[in-house]
């Protein structure tokens, strides 16, 4: 689990064959939420924060797709929707394994 620094991700994939890499949820949220104005974005922000709490990938996909379809046409949220869509799979690697947890304990 790390930020998406390309050099680091590449090194992990080369050094740890068959290991999965996951984008840090904090970095994921920051990347999305810093690209949308704070004014009038509370529903969008709350929906994004709710998505990272899912432990089942199918439910997370549905919530993500609904959010993107609701906001992609709004000029102030297009970049945030693109980031959400592009980084989604890397952020939800934990759901691919049994007994998934969205936070380290």
Give a short synopsis of this structure.
The chain is mainly α and 105 residues long.
Explain what the structure shows.
This protein has 105 residues and is mostly helical. The protein is 55% helix and 0% strand. The protein has helices at residues 6-15, 25-33, 42-51, 57-71, 78-91. α2 packs antiparallel against α5. It is globular, with a radius of gyration of 14 Å. The two termini are 14 Å apart.
Low-confidence stretches: none
How many strand units?
Answer: 0
Structural class designation = mainly alpha
First-last Cα distance: 14 Å
Portion in beta strands = under 5%
Taking all Cα atoms into account, the compactness measure Rg is 14 Å
What is the mean predicted local confidence, pLDDT?
Answer: 82
Number of helices: 5
The helical percent reads 55-70%
Outline: globular
List keywords for this structure.
105 residues
Question: What is the element layout, followed by pairings?
Answer:
Layout: H1 6-15, H2 25-33, H3 42-51, H4 57-71, H5 78-91
Helix pairs in contact: 2-5, 3-4, 4-5
């Amino acid at each position: 689990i790390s930020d998406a620094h390309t050099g680091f991700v590449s090194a992990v994939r080369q050094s740890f064959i068959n290991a999965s890499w996951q984008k840090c949820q904090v970095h994921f949220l920051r990347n999305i939420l810093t690209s949308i104005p704070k004014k009038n974005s509370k529903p969008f922000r709350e929906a994004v924060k709710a998505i990272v709490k899912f432990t089942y990938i199918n439910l997370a996909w549905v919530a993500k797709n609904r959010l993107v379809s609701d906001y992609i046409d709004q000029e102030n949220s297009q970049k945030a929707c693109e980031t959400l869509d592009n980084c989604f799979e890397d952020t939800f690697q934990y759901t691919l394994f049994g007994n998934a947890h969205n936070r380290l304990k």
